[in-house]
Batch of 4 targets.
Target 1
Amino acid sequence: MTTDSVKALLAARKPIRSGRVGVFSVGHYYYWPQFPGVREKLLEHTAYFIKQLEQQGKATIIAAEGLCDSSQRAFEVGNQFAREQLDLLFCFVATYTPSAHVLPVIQRAGVPVVLIALQPSAAMDYERANIAMQLENDNITSLPEIAGAMARANQKPVDVVVGTLRDDDRAWERIRAWCEVATVWHELKNARIGLMGHVYEGMLDMNSDPTMADAHLGMHVEHIEMDDLKARVDQVTEREAADKLALIESVFDFPDPGADPVATKATREDLIWPAQVACGMDRLVADFGLTGLAYYYRGLGGNDYERIHAAMIIGNSFLTSLGVPVAGELDLKNCIAMLIVDRFGAGGSFAEFHPVDFAEDFVLVGHDGPHHLLIADGKPALRKLSVYHGKRGSGPSVEYKLKVGPITMLGLTQTHEGKFKMVLAEGQSLPGLIPATGNTNTRGKFEPDVRTFLERWTMEGPTHHFALGVGHIADKIALLARCLGIECVLTTPK
């Protein structure tokens, strides 16, 4: 896309709702009269830690005042956090603390907990060492005790981070990742996903119980009718449709036909009806307060619903790029996966596997129809398809390849017991030609080789769709899975 087109899309994206991370620092009241000055030192270290978190801007930080240094104070802090509706809790272990100063906070906050022990000094000055200095650096001493008490309360931490307070990239990268997870978790459990139509007949892997999404992910699945969309398409004004048409013409290229006789050059006339439908979809999303949509309509005799369904590709692509993922074939699980990948800033396009190139050891990864335009390599194209393979209707369809570089795939599936499961892979998007078929494709390279990767991926029982994003974010998604209590498998070697 041109720079102006990208700016226009980005400007229209709504801000992501920031996750809420509670932070409390723990100590032991018994030390303060014994070792004057230690408490003040610990408060300085705590203030530095909180300031670093706030400066990152990855989440909203809600810090308890002072030190949680007694069981009484633990009850007060826990009750405070209970009112704050947190997404995640950081326990900053400033020095040794009895676990009774920690567990009440965790129990009342009721959210996943990360234990953090960051020593202010890389090592003590042993020649000058004293008890006060030891207490200032006793960050890990009570970690086992806290974890043991949590285990007995069925409150296992989602992570433990050990390191130094300053100049420790390993520790701070983990902490930053958890702040991002808190924001994605916040977005996920406040999501409203529209469900319109039925699953594409015969795709058994995609059937799912919407109540499971509500119950296990905290979101709400809103049932919507095609009538709801048609009513809004009918309400679109000429001005709205004209503005959308202008946006379409600025965002997309319109290449000449390639080898496929099904894919021809899209004309301005081909865009008028999809532009109106795209405006109706905007209204639908706004009226129902949606953060995602999964839909499918089979069609019947060229009726109004079939015409609308066939013209949704462009509107879907715009909405997905604006952070409202739209999943075709009523794949609710993949809509959720796309939302997760988008909120990690990686895009999140609707994808599946296409043919393998065994000669060069890659697999084409993509799908027909709509896509996340902000992860395209260059300007995306529109081609008019005389037939949508496997579906009724015809019209313009999006074609591009992903940006060259690292990519991540997230498949959200379900097990025999009905539980959600995440299947992950990291690979590379390679440069090179893709078929001029009006379908998105990218050359996906996965270790150790394409055959072994596809075998491993398939063995995990995924759905045939997945969310495709740019960058390597499998580690962050795995952290989110811990918060959700969901099984998570990485199918590519690290």
Target 2
Amino acid sequence: MSDLLHRPRRLRRTDNLRALVRETRLAPEDFILPLFACPGERVRREITSMPGVHNLSVDEIAKEAAGAYDLGVKGVILFGLPEAKDEVASGAYHKNGIVQQAVRAIRKSASDLVIMTDTCLCEYTSHGHCGVVRDGGVINDDTLELLARTAVSQAESGADVVGPSAMMDGQVGVIREALDDAGFDQVAIMAYAVKYASAFYGPFREAADSAPAFGDRRAYQMDAANAREALREAELDEAEGADFLMVKPATVYLDILKTLREQFELPLAAYHVSGEYAMIKAAAQNGWIDEQRVMMETLTSIKRAGADIILTYYAREAVRTLTG
């Protein structure tokens, strides 16, 4: 007769037993789908390094968002590819900018969808940096004014949440003040509080045509080696009025995500970024992994580490898996 008293395998024996004691559960409302708006009509251009992800004209992005909502995705975040770029990113805050047009179109096609906007300048500047450039450097305080104008313009178009991602010091506070002064005190701010200077953004830069024309972004995005600094960044954004905090990228910074979850009460988002998505896609296309299982295991790890909200290009597929 066995003298084993403790047998953890008892609760792993069947699908239903495993489900009964599962500690971390994904749900359709956990996911935000990133979408890329571009000029033109009936444009649906697949991004080479991100199979299944497209640059979409305004008419197509409205259909895409409505279809995602019908499937069960509760929110989208919008990025824009303007017709023209300049040194002061005027397309970011123009009332008829590409993201502003997309917000209005999506609001008509899926009125209850949560619409978030990326509030940054890199997609709209001719030099590809996230702010005003002078003498080869990004000027923090001059950039703040343009970020505030962008956030107000996005709110005017109907955005529910703006997402400052430029990693400029003080950006959340300046945007909060600008939104409140313009009468948009109910528009929330999802702060890209902890955004690392990561090599995992490569495919996104193809999608958004936002690679820097010179240098890189390590002077304003965080050093990958730093963990304590993440707490300071998050503390500052919380103090300035952020409604959400975000960690970006997600899977290679799960330790940071867990640390923030333990220290802050604000809702916590994590961005499963383009390079993380592309690696799964590439391995799956080579037959090396089971894409669906790896996708769900990856997203579960992000939720387990503490994320309340996951921004992922797999949002539709994840919802289908959960509801199918």
Target 3
Amino acid sequence: MNLYSIINNMPTYAINKRANFDYQISDKYEAGIVFAGYEVKSVKTGHISLKEAFVTLKRKAGHGLPDAYLTNCHIPLYKHAGKMPDYEPARSRKLLIKKIEIRQLIGKTKEKGLTLVPIRVYNKGSLIKLEFGVGKGKKKIDKRENIKKRETERRIQKLQKQY
């Protein structure tokens, strides 16, 4: 069991471990994901990767508000689904978000240096949800400071265990 499953008491299928390391996440949002049936089975067996994934806002012609998409998320074909020659494992998947939240995201992504970063995919009831956040990229110096803090905390913990 991972940390998110224990805290939220919900099964977590994928965690983007690099999200908190590479980005400083300010606001978090929850969204549903539009899957095909065989993709749901693949996700529920734990075959999903958020490693290089990101959230984009794309406006269709004739629409007022853009739609949110999970881009570059890799979901391999479910092994019992049979042959599907036109299946793309890294295709863009539409996210189901309220209009109010989309308006907030439009304003935040227009700010310099802010991006939408997927954090984890989890189960809520019978639905599969995506948690993503508005993140600002960390610089190399910030990452080094985080590593130093973590190492000093580990040393302190070791010393406390010894005494």
Target 4
Amino acid sequence: MRARLESFQLKPGRILNGKYVVENRIGGGIEGEVYKVRDKKTGLHRAVKAFFPGNGDVEKTIARNARLLDRLKKCPIVIHYHHAESFRFRRQTIHYLVSEYVQGESLSTFCERYPGKRMRPFAALHVIHSLCKGLEVIHAAGEYHGDIHADNVLVEPKGIFYDIKLVDFHDRGRAKAKEKLYDIYEVARLLYDITGGGAHYAKQPEIIKGLCRGLRRDLIRKRFPTISHVIKYLETRDTGGPIV
């Protein structure tokens, strides 16, 4: 029995199907990994999501992902899908989706440039607000992400704002309330992580503690039953003074 792949570790310069030159890994999750590639013919950059084999029916998963991205093509934080292909890797057929490439870097890498490798509260709240506004569109369409963490969020500063994109949707069909709630739990966890985690949580502003709620899911669920409640909280919460 083959060992289950957990990473392709595609090297820069590797060519897929004679068409796409791998430049670097930009994300990953349960289903597979996402790479930045260059189209040899046009010179344009694309994103490739390569799916791990042996994880259910990969072809059905790809078709489901493609339909999902197509349904959400008007959502500002979703990357636009182009087409699907496959390549050979360690005697296995690896299927992948080709989509638009967007500027930016993973939130985990972005945070590493901050002192202490953690974002300051005001900047972190801006990122979370942009993410939630996109998730509101996704949830309204009856969908969810299912695997939100710092490696799956791409961020690009634009003036005082942040352009956010989500990669590697963990789609398993139309969302029920519990799947949408799981996205909300992960948003709270993401804010907790990018501001320094447990080592700095006690000193965070109350607006951050009020969203993270000690990462207790029962408290998060009670206060934020929908992503719209999170947005309203972030936009209307009285902070009692400036947040730095």
